[in-house]
UniProtKB/TrEMBL annotation:
Site residues, Increases basicity of active site His: 141
Protein name as annotated: Sugar O-acyltransferase (Sialic acid O-acetyltransferase NeuD family)
Residues that hold substrate according to the record: 10-12, 71
Domain PglD N-terminal per the UniProt entry, residue ranges: 3-83
A molecular function GO annotation: acyltransferase activity
Pfam families attached to this UniProt entry: PglD_N (PF17836)
Family according to the record: Belongs to the transferase hexapeptide repeat family.
Keyword Transcription regulation: no
The keyword rRNA processing is annotated on this UniProt entry: no
Organism (species): Gelidibacter algens
Residues annotated as the enzyme's active site: 140 (proton acceptor)
Length: 221
């Protein structure tokens, strides 16, 4: 059983801990977090260091893998870049809750997290460092690019393209054959009946574009 760490100790990270414990695939050794106190306990596990201490912790605890416990897509990407630079030997592991339903022809790449009761249907392609949150559904023949995410209760119909860094927020529905551009945020509860371009903030039922957004701006607090 590989020893792993979680980078970040937010609410999303707590959900990852729960999935790890129910999978019995990895041994969770603690959190790395630069904004919380060392030895603070989060969901039964201690914060054992910050990012600068990561190389030493890897050696001391025989750490073989890490997962990024950050829900915001741009922040998660920035964390990946920092970790890759400071500890290039570490494997970024994927975490899949045992209640998730994943079609047999679907592979889950590095860094991606699949939460309870998520569904990924046939011939869907999921990128690196994605999140499919609780009870989200990705339809057949869909493509999620790297660092994109589906929030809890999202439904994506067949043959939808979701761009890199884009986020589909709580309970949104996207009908078939549409494209969501890169770094775009689809607001909670939206009904998406048309494609949305790159770097947009859009919401509503039916959806409409509200404004442009910076690719690196946070959408989660």
């Amino acid at each position: 059983m590989k020893n792993i760490l979680i980078y970040g100790a937010s609410g999303h990270a707590k959900m990852i801990v729960d999935s790890i414990q129910k999978n019995h695939t990895y041994a969770m050794k603690g959190f790395i977090d630069s904004y919380k106190l060392i030895n603070e306990v989060v969901f039964g596990h201690s914060i054992i260091g910050d990012l600068k201490q990561l190389p030493d912790i890897v050696k001391q605890l025989n750490i073989e893998g890490i997962v990024i416990g950050i829900g915001d897509n741009s922040t998660r990407k920035a964390a990946y870049q920092k970790i890759k630079k400071i500890a290039p030997q570490l494997e970024f592991v994927s975490i899949i809750h045992p209640s998730a339903t994943i079609a047999l022809d679907v592979s889950i790449p590095e860094g991606t997290v699949i939460m309870p009761n998520a569904v990924i249907n046939a011939n869907a392609k999921v990128g690196r460092f994605c999140i499919l949150n609780t009870a989200s559904t990705l339809g057949h023949d869909c493509k999620m690019a790297d660092f994109s995410s589906l929030a809890s209760g999202v439904t994506v119909a067949g043959s939808v393209q979701i761009g890199a860094g884009s986020a589909v927020c709580l309970g949104a529905t996207i009908i078939q054959n549409l494209t969501i551009g890169d770094n775009t945020v689809i607001g909670a509860g939206s009904l998406v009946l048309k494609s949305i371009g790159n770097n947009k903030m859009a919401y509503g039922a039916p959806i409409h574009t509200i404004k442009d957004r910076s690719p690196n701006s946070k959408y989660l607090g």
